[in-house]
């Protein structure tokens, strides 16, 4: 594993002012993530996981504290610079897939590439098809989201996250809507991507999903209460093989 830090968080605080009340969603979060790590962020509902992930993904800014993404101090950047950084370095995967309806899988995956004016129509197509191949869905390129299963829709969303070849994938409850088998399939894909060198930060509140990662950061009430390496990373492919046959449930 290379030793360069992809993320460096120091004393990150995020407060939301709601009328006369202030919600302190993050109360001073500090940790680093190194290139090639597969980190899960755990914690109960309201502990600050999504707030933290939005900051990591430059979708939101902290109230205070410093955040370096691949060595770049994010707080000094303009909105345009942030959007550029986000588009080049980060792939997002959400619980609700966030695919465009009535739009083919291939076109959904092509979307992030429209921000890159240097790409020709053919290059855009080829890259999107390559990303669909990486998630084993090339044979579904013409299907719209409603013509795909939940797990397939999530794989399209992962292909879309991969198409700009980001250094890091951020996922927020990406298996939250999926059954056990499909969740494990998504985790097997995440483990493959991690093997290929992608850094992954994956929010979940399910311990059996966190077992597939190599490190878990536990949040409680806006603070890190535990940050531990997982010595026995579970193989999602083995977990899949150990499940009873699909028709049994
Ligand atoms: N935009 C916002 N405005 C005001 N308060 C917010 C906002 N976003 C989050 N919060 C508050 O910040 C706290 C952390 O919320 P967050 O969404 O990060 O939790 P979470 O750990 O992702 O929970 P869940 O597991 O339910 O998704 C909560 O108390 C929430 O109500
Ligand atoms: Mg959340």
From TrEMBL:
A GO term for molecular function: transmembrane transporter activity
Output the superkingdom of the source species. Bacteria
Domain (ABC transporter): give its ranges. 7-246
Give coiled-coil spans as residue ranges: none
Record InterPro entries: AAA+_ATPase (IPR003593), ABC_transporter-like_ATP-bd (IPR003439), ABC_transporter-like_CS (IPR017871), ABC_transpr_LolD-like (IPR015854), MacB-like_ATP-bd (IPR017911), P-loop_NTPase (IPR027417)
Q: Which UniProt keywords apply?
A: ATP-binding, Nucleotide-binding, Transport
Q: Which PROSITE patterns does the entry link to?
A: ABC_TRANSPORTER_1 (PS00211), ABC_TRANSPORTER_2 (PS50893)
Q: Which GO terms describe its cellular component?
A: membrane protein complex; plasma membrane
Q: Which family does it belong to?
A: Belongs to the ABC transporter superfamily. Macrolide exporter (TC 3.A.1.122) family.
| Protein's UniProt name | Putative ABC transport system ATP-binding protein
Q: What organism does the record attribute this protein to?
A: Chitinophaga ginsengisegetis
């Amino acid at each position: 594993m290379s030793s360069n830090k992809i993320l460096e968080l120091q004393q990150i605080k995020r407060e939301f002012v709601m009328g006369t009340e202030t919600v302190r969603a993050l109360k001073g979060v500090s940790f680093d993530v190194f290139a090639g790590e597969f980190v899960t962020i755990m914690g109960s509902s309201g502990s600050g996981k999504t707030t933290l992930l939005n900051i990591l993904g430059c979708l939101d800014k902290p109230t205070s504290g410093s955040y370096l993404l691949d060595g770049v101090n994010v707080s000094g950047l303009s909105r345009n610079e942030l959007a550029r950084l986000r588009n080049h370095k980060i792939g997002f995967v959400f619980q609700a897939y966030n695919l465009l309806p009535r739009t083919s899988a291939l076109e959904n995956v092509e979307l992030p590439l429209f921000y890159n004016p240097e790409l020709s129509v053919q290059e855009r197509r080829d890259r999107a098809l390559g990303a669909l191949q990486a998630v084993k869905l090339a044979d579904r390129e013409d299907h719209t989201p409603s013509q795909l299963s939940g797990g397939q829709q999530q794989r399209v969303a992962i292909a879309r996250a991969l198409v700009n070849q980001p250094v890091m994938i951020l996922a927020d409850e990406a298996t939250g809507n999926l059954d056990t088998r499909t969740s494990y399939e998504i985790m097997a894909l995440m483990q493959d991507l991690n093997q290929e060198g992608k850094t992954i930060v994956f929010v979940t509140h399910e311990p059996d999903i966190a077992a597939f990662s190599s490190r878990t950061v536990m949040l409680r009430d806006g603070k890190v209460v535990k940050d531990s390496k997982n010595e026995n990373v579970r193989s999602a492919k083995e977990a899949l093989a150990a499940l009873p046959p699909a028709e049994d449930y």
